[in-house]
Each structure stands twice: as C-alpha cells, then as structure tokens.
Fold each of these.
Amino acid sequence: MNIIIDAMGGDNAPAEILKGAAAAVREYGVLVTAVGDEAKMRAALVAEGVDAAGITLVHAPEQISMCDEPTAAIRHKKDSSMVVGLRMLAEGKGDAFVSAGSTGALLAGAMLIVKRLRGVKRPAIGTVIPGIEGPYLLLDSGANVECRPEMLNAFAVMGSVYMERVMGRKAPKVALVNNGAEETKGTPAYVQAHALMKANPRIHFAGNIEPRDIPAGAVDVVVCDGFTGNVILKLTEGLAKSLVGQIKNVFLASAKTKLAYLLVKGGMRDFKKMLDADEHGGALMMGVAKPVIKAHGSSNAKAFKNAIRQAKRCVDGNVVGAMAELLADAPEADA
Amino acid sequence: MNIIIDAMGGDNAPAEILKGAAAAVREYGVLVTAVGDEAKMRAALVAEGVDAAGITLVHAPEQISMCDEPTAAIRHKKDSSMVVGLRMLAEGKGDAFVSAGSTGALLAGAMLIVKRLRGVKRPAIGTVIPGIEGPYLLLDSGANVECRPEMLNAFAVMGSVYMERVMGRKAPKVALVNNGAEETKGTPAYVQAHALMKANPRIHFAGNIEPRDIPAGAVDVVVCDGFTGNVILKLTEGLAKSLVGQIKNVFLASAKTKLAYLLVKGGMRDFKKMLDADEHGGALMMGVAKPVIKAHGSSNAKAFKNAIRQAKRCVDGNVVGAMAELLADAPEADA
C-alpha cells in the first residue's frame, strides 16, 4: 500500500510530518510518497536523522498557506504539494492522501481533483472524538455550514460505514443532534432529516441525541450540519483544555497538592490520554471518491503517524467502495 | 419588592422551591408570593419545618407538566400556578416571576400574558454559564431554533444590558458564535448578523467568537441562535459532568489515590463550585415586558434561592426598562 502525504502542510511541516511518515513505514508496513519542496524535505530528513527507507520524495515547489482562498489556491497553485498529491491520488499513483494543510483547500481540492461519490452533493468532514465510553464519529464537523435533510441522511450512511470498517463497531448506532428527543424537535431541516434517517434501512438509527449526552459516547455516529459540528468539535476541545488547565492549577497550589499529584500521576496520564485527539489521527473527507484524510493542523509526528494508520485502515476496509455501493441506489441523497 | 414564584414547577416542587423562597426572604429581604396548590404548599412547609414569614400563599389548583404542549397548556390551564403567577405579574401584583417549570410553557405564557417589548419578535433565553475567567451570558440558549439577523442583533443589546446591570460588567464585550473569525464566516444569517452587530452603536462588539474560546469566558455576552445555544449549554453541562466523573474515578482507584484526594480536597471543591450552574440562578426570558426567570428544572433550594436573587437584581437594575429604551428606537429589530 502506498500512502501519498502532503509533506508541507501543517504547523510542524516538513520535519514532524516526515518523522511521522517514517514511523508509519516501520510500524504499519506501508510505503509513503512524500510530496513537497525536495530540498526542504531532504534537509529535514538529515536534520532530524530520519531513516527514509520506504519514503519516496516527489518534488512540488509551491505551497498552499492557511491564508490562501481555498478554491483559488487549488486552481492556481498547480505545483503545490497539495494539488500534486491529490492529482497523484486521482491518477491511481497511491491509495490515499493525507494532509495537515488548510481544511478548506483540501476540501476544495478533493472535490475538484478527486471528485465526489455519486449521490453526494457535498463531502462532510468526519472527525473521531474521544468519548467517555469510547470514541465517536462526528460528521459533518465543519465542511458545510448549511445542510439539507438529504445530506444529513447521506452523512449517516457514510459515518456508519466508517465506524464499522475502520473502528470495528458492529451495527454502529447513529443519532441526529437535536434540542430534544421528540422527532418534531429542531429546525424544519432537522425534522425532515429525522424522518429520512428513521426510514433508512442502511443505518441503525437511535433517534435524536441531546448535546448533553454526546460526550459520554453513547452512540457511534453523531450527525449534524457543519456549523453545529464545528461548535461541538471546538467546544469539546476548548472545554477539555480549560478544565485540564484548572485541575493542573489545583495540583500546583502547594507542596501538599504537588505530593497529591505524584500519587495520582498514572491515572491523570490515562485521563489525559483519553482526551487526546492525536490518538485518533485525522478526519476523513466523507463522500470523496478516494480516501483523503485531513490531519490536525498542529499535528506532531505521533498525530501524523496515526493519521496514516487511519488512511491504511480506510484502504484495508475499502471504506470508500462500501460508501459508494450504499449511496449509489439512494437517489434522494443528490436530490 | 415582591417576587412571585411558581411553587409547583420543577422536579423538586413544592418543598425545595419553598425552602429556597424562605432563604431568599431571610437573605435578600424580599417578599415572596408563592402560587400553587395551597394544601400541598402548606403540607410542604410543615414537613420541612420552613419559616413562612414573608411568604404569601396564593391558591392555584392546576399544574402544567413537562409533557403538556406549551401553548395549549397556557391557553387551557387558566388556574395553573404558572398562568396565575404570570397574570399577577402582568397586573402589577408583583415585580418579577420565577418558575422552575416547563421552559416552553413559560416562554409561551410570558409572550401571551406578560407580552413582549417593542422591537422584539421573539424573546430569547439568556443563561449565565460558568467560565474559567468568570461567568458569561449565552443567548439564545434555546428558545428559537431559527433566528433572523435582526433577532441576533436584538439579543446582543439585551444581553449587554443584563451583564452590565445584573452582573456588574462595565462595557460588556459581545461576540457572535461562528466557525471562524472572519466576518464572511457562517450561514448567510450569521454573515448579516455580524454586519448588523458591527454597526450597532449600543453594544461593544468583539467580532466572532470560535467555540474553542467560549469556555474561557473571554467575552461577557455570547450570541447565537437557540439551536446552537442549546448545543453550547448542554454540551458544556454534559462534558463538565463527564470529566468530573472521570477525575473522581482517578481518585477512587486505590488507597494511594484516595490519600491524594484528601490533599487536594479544598482545590477540587473550588473547582467544582466554579462549574456549578446553581451558583448563577436561572435564565431571564429576554424581551419579555417584565422580568420572568426560568430556574433549572432540577433546582434544589439553593438554586431556586439564587434564581430569586437574580430576579431581585433584575428589578433593582431596572433591566427590562433599560432594554425597552435601547430597543424602542431600533426598528430593525422587528423587521
């Protein structure tokens, strides 16, 4: 298996990206094609003492920044690491593409270069979020600020395939985010989406989920529009960070509390690990015709390695093929 | 000052409601008119040994339950504690009304019986939420699942008045929830709301706030539609509860970790107090012509006492009068 990576995307590119790639080669037995500025990639490999076995470098002199307007960047920066990498994926020169670069550009590039699955009007970003009872998948976590009911219904199908094939959940439970359990709750689009999902034989629909119950991880797939999904994703991150910071302050207060920390260190480490989004890699662009994965912009080597592991699991499980099959005979998804 | 209360609303009515009322009479020097089933109220006062000095009982035999359809309940249950209490408020027989009953019914009743301020199409629910740097006001936290830009702009004005007059914030900072800092972010309604708020001389607009930054409490007033607000409110509650539960597990793991807990007990108590929504009382129905406050459905005596304190502060600060003044010459709020 050959995973194409954007070696220039993200806050810590190219050094951490390449270190993560080298670790993925060793641990998962994949081959990696690293696309980026060749001189910079070589310099980073030498500076970090990275063993480049299994990594092929492909030169792409341009770079898309976080400030570039997404669609314009994809159209005009033809020699950027992201565009070259996506083109290689579209041409079958690799099995998946992973980037820690601009989410907007990656989404636009995936749609323009790799294309969508039939039945998908707009891809969604599916993010795995740590939950108390285990991680859950949130989609759309930010691609589409407004979603029609048919889109939400398609997200439910794609999310189920992902949780089953990548995360190994049997008969994954799907719920629709809403401000109450009754099927009449929410905006007209949510009421309609509820009806579509309830009638959808391809998913295991658990009804509406109230936001209070999301963090526990009681369901496997949490469906909502991208505006709401962005709120859930970012508020979860922000709140977990704030609370962990507050608890740290409690332990730093005095010599006595510092001693207490030594006594609970192991448990607190497990607790922080549970909250660590890096453990779960990146976000799959769901509805794109081949696996395109967005790693977190602040990815370090470990996070990027995990995003490659996720790409490998998507390929191993033929996730995109299974989504294509289930969506092809669901014409309403493109209504 | 005379605060009218719904003695039958909420999970712990009437006992905890009346205990909270008696504490409020003692601590804040207010008078309370308790509306509800007189026999049940008297029995609760006796059973709990509550000193009823300062509390006047008004008999209202009917009760609105959480299962009643809100508007129908208000129209048909004329002798319910909620309807009788709201009517007394409308007729000037008290200065504010506090209920821990059904949010939907209270909202419908406030609109139908107490009426709206000029310039307000639909009232919003304003909830004070604990933040790391201090509490902030979230509105709309659940009344209107869809909001037009003019409504969001009116919420900004009302929220500012509240934070200034009730919470004592000078020049309160207002922000619009959005999925990015740029003024072009979000749905068309949010883009327009941003423009209206930016041009509004009555508020101190700090631009968009990303959900990640909300828990810190960096701004005083957080404005969004009620669907998003419900997600923020309930996800914050659920996540805080889940994380506190996890930390508790860390401390319960062994004799060693239990010892650690003894060493940090004080700090953890302060931490939990910071997260305690009961500290901040209830939610003001913003845009109603007189102060109507929704206490949490699960209110205990302390939470209900604090909701009465909040009602007193609203009356003391003439919050509704100030809102009326600022909204009266803003015709766009009712566009």
Note: The two ends of chain A are 36 Å apart (CA to CA).
Amino acid sequence: MHHILLSGGFGTRLWPLSRKSKPKQYLSLFKGQSLFEMTLLRNQVVCNQVTVIGNTDNLQLSKAVEHILGDNTVRYIVEATPRNTAPAIAFAAFQVDKEAILLITPSDHIIEGDTGYQEAVLQAQKLAEEGNLVTFGVKPTHTETGYGYIEYSGNTVQSFREKPDLATAALFLEKGNFLWNSGMFCFKAGVYLAELQKHAPEVYDASLTAWKNSTNGELDLESSLAIPSLSIDYAVMEKSDKIKVVPATFQWSDMGSFEAIYDYLLRNGFNTDANGNMVIGETDKHVSFVGLKNTILVYTEDAILVLDKSFSQDVKKVYDTLAAQQSMLLE
Amino acid sequence: MHHILLSGGFGTRLWPLSRKSKPKQYLSLFKGQSLFEMTLLRNQVVCNQVTVIGNTDNLQLSKAVEHILGDNTVRYIVEATPRNTAPAIAFAAFQVDKEAILLITPSDHIIEGDTGYQEAVLQAQKLAEEGNLVTFGVKPTHTETGYGYIEYSGNTVQSFREKPDLATAALFLEKGNFLWNSGMFCFKAGVYLAELQKHAPEVYDASLTAWKNSTNGELDLESSLAIPSLSIDYAVMEKSDKIKVVPATFQWSDMGSFEAIYDYLLRNGFNTDANGNMVIGETDKHVSFVGLKNTILVYTEDAILVLDKSFSQDVKKVYDTLAAQQSMLLE
C-alpha cells in the first residue's frame, strides 16, 4: 500500500503557535514529535511507500524529518499553487500503477489507538481491492459543528452532510448512524482517476496536463493555475456510486483549534491549574491565572495569545486581522 | 511643615510587579516615576523638610531617588521591625520640635489634582495649628469595600467606620456624609504625642524607650519588639476628642490592586483592546485576547499573571501560596 501524505494547510486557528514558516503539522508540540512525524510513523506500519504532497515552503520542513522512516525513501510532489485535494490526489495517482492501493491522509490530524487504526486501514484496503473508493468515518463523541458528517449503514454511505448547525449535530449524535468525515481515504489509483474523469472531467484533464508538464514531481505554475480548485469530497466522493465507508473506533482529532489541542494534552497527562487554565508553548516564566476558568495562554517568542477555550474558533479573526496588516507576526 | 513619609508596605496584591526587592511604591510604572517619587515631589510644594520612615530593605531604594528633591535633604528613620503606624509616627514626632506641624502620608497612594491637594493641606495645616489631629477624607466615587470610612459634618468627625460590606458601602455612598479614610494626617508633633500618651500609654512609653536607644535614626531590634504594633487610627484617631477631618476633592487611590492601577492607567491615556483587556508591564511581545473581557495580563521577567479585573483582590492568594512555598518569585 502507498501512503499519500497531504502536507498543505496552515492552521490559522492555531496562531501564534502556527506560522507561515512552520505550519501546525510541523510543530513539535506532542511528546517532542510533530503531527507530520506521527503521521509518517503511524502509516509506515501499513504502507511500504510514501509520497508527500505539499508546497515549496513545506518541502524543506518535510525533508528535515524523513530520516525517521529509516531506509524507507520518501517521494515528493511539490505543488506550484494550492488546488485543493482532488488534483493533489490525482497527481499522486498518476505517478503509480493503476492497481496500486493509495492510503490518503492529512498530516495535521491526531489518532490515538494504533490497533484500532490498523484494523480500520486493513478493512479499507480490502474494500479498495474490490474496486471501491473508501472513506474513513469517525464515531462522533460530541456535537461538533466543525466537521462534515457521513450518514451510514455498515460500510454503505447513505449521504454526505455539510458542517451542521448545533441542533442538527445533536440530532446526528442522537440518531447514531452518523460519522465524522475524517478526510482520510483508501482506493486503487486507477479507480480514483476513472471516477474523477467521470464526475469532474475538467479537473481530471487539467491535472493530467499539469502532471505531464511537471519535472521530478515539481508542478509548474501556469498549468497548475488552469486546474479547478476542488476537494475530493465535492469532486468525487459525493457523486460516485463506488463509495464505501469504514466506521473507525480510534480516537481522532483534526487538531484544528486550541480547544482540540487542550483536550488532547489533558488526555495525555498535561496539567491545568485547579480551574482548568493551561499554558501552551515553551516558557520558563511562572504563569498564574486569577478569576479565570478554562483559559489558555499560548506563549511564543514574539506573541502571547490569551484565550477563553470556548472561543477557540475566533482565533482565526486575530489571524485575519494580522493578515490584513501584513503583520510579521504571521511569518 | 515637615513631611513624614511612611515607606513601609509591600503590595502583595500587586505581585508579580511588586516584589520584596522592589515594593509597589518604588515601581516606575506611572509616567516613568514611582509612587514614592510622586509623593516626595507633591509634598515638596507644601513642606520644607522630609523624613522617610521605612525598613532596612527600603532604605537604599529611598535614597536612590532623593536627588529629585534637589538641595532639600531627607532624613531617614529606619525601623528594625514593622510596628504599624502609631509607633512610626511617634518616632517622627520625637525627632522634631513639639510645635512642628507634621504632614503624614503613605508613599504608595496616588493623588490627581495638585490644586485640590494643596488646598486640602493648607486647610489641614490651619486646623493643626489650632491643636487638632487632622485626618484627610476623600469623597467616595463608588461603593468601595476595601477602605475605612469617616462619617462627617464640615470638619467634624462623627465616627470612624471599619471596612464595610457592599450593602453598607452603598448606604454610605447614598447618605453622602461619609468619606474614605485616606491614611494621611496633619498635626503638631506635641499634640500627637500627648494624645498617644493619653490613649495608648504602652505604645508611647515603648516607642520613647526605643527612640532613646536609637542611633542616627536607626532603631534597635530588641526595644522595637517591645512596642505594641498598633495603627494610628486604632491607637489615637478613634479615641481622641481633638480629631478634625478635611474633606478633600482631589482624585485619590491607594493603588492597592490591579483594578486600581487599571483605572488609573485608563484615565491617563493607556489603552485597552475593544473588550477592555489590558497589558501591564513592559514586553516587546504582541498580546492578543480572544473571548475575554476586562482581563489584565501582567508581564514581568520571570512571571506572568492573567487576571479577571474583578478578582483583583484575589491576587493576594497567589502571593500567599508562593510565600508558603518560599518562592524566589517573590524576591
């Protein structure tokens, strides 16, 4: 099986930890390893080849840690401009045999429970060998409005649902036949390309042209800009009739917000004070909280964020304000 | 008139700004000047002599800024151990002529409005010359439970009241004939000593013995420990029938909490963000607050305090905890 690691993304809701020069998947926040490294190692057990797809800025960050795979060499596909997941996965599929099974994963998610993960991957591999496009669904643990949902029965997908409002998320949780859409996939390269060609021919054609113009995995800007920017969910998964889902039992998080990181750190022995306040980031300074609950202080070299945990999504507003000012604090 | 500057006190509710090595009255937080310096300069206008009473640790901090008074020399009385205000003021009275008028002030309060202050002092001086013990009362601006109150009519004190609960403070504010007890006094040295001898003879006798044993204003530990530790309010003001009050119109604060400092800084052009959050202390770091209102981040070299402004009194609990641990963070 061939691990396809998508290393794009920035993590705007994790500023000031996440920076343009070091997006969240490369931060060494988690037991001294980055999410990127943890993803590489987790999939080395089930895959014998790896391709990392990302942009020029991320390439050096990715190469800096490839040694953790030992002798297992890593291939790189370098995008000239972000075109979303449908084209990125097409590039990965073009470079291998049509019968090769691809396991697509983001690089900025966390999975706890190796056994559960490997069981889910083996189940997906089997379904992929039978010619299906397999998505991984995660059992919801709370009413989450930040993820898409998959309505399912066994391995059958009944519908994909956009990010719901709170009432709808509660209904999904109550009904019990809904899974979080994890953004991980498994399928034969040839099956994906055939379905992409069928349901999003413009994406397929432009991606193929760009791939033919690429050199050693490096895409060129001009033909990349001609590719429609579409997600695999929108371009293929929501339209194909070859979709299967594997309901996964492992603990999963997209680590998309400080609340997610806070919860992960708590589960892994990191301390808060008596009122649930936590310091994230390295500092020698003593930090005391008074009159505050569930507050997170994020400490970095040049910026401090003080955050009520339940407002974690609003960190993006700070990012956007700084971006509008072209602030160096994002670099 | 002789300015008697009481420089004791630590400012436990201003940790981590206030430290044992630099109590709050010596911090250069206010327009580059410390409260100690501001108090010296404010009273230079109305007094031609100054005596600073404090402990050994504070002596060098006091001497370091005496140059701001120019040719006006400063006398120092150095206490061997804190004995509260009644003995400290007795030492100051012993060293001068009995007819000398003393103006007693703390060193860690702030007064805004020079004219109002000078008017109040001149009025107090006149009443002191007539043989009264004069206290300064401040018109309350809000229901404050952290101060004692003075019930008054004109210059007559009707009663002293301990720190009230919130309902009582509201009643005082509504009635309109109550003033905050500011901790500033004006009287003839001889009148104070006579009233102290009358109402607290043990304090008077022990203070006199200690003063006789002192060398160049330096008290010795053994005879100091024999002095009962009593405040001037308790020992004299609440008992004497020679008390007068000057209702003052200036803006006054004891700067006893971060809320008081926050309010002062706001009045003096210091900024908060749109939700009333403020950074106090010097840092080059950018600080963002998300999902929080009226939060204060206090930044120092080795400690950060994050505080909901309305819990400012609770900072003392952090101090007490660190004190119990004999933490270096208090030094």
Note: Chain B touches chain A through 32 residues (CB under 8 Å).
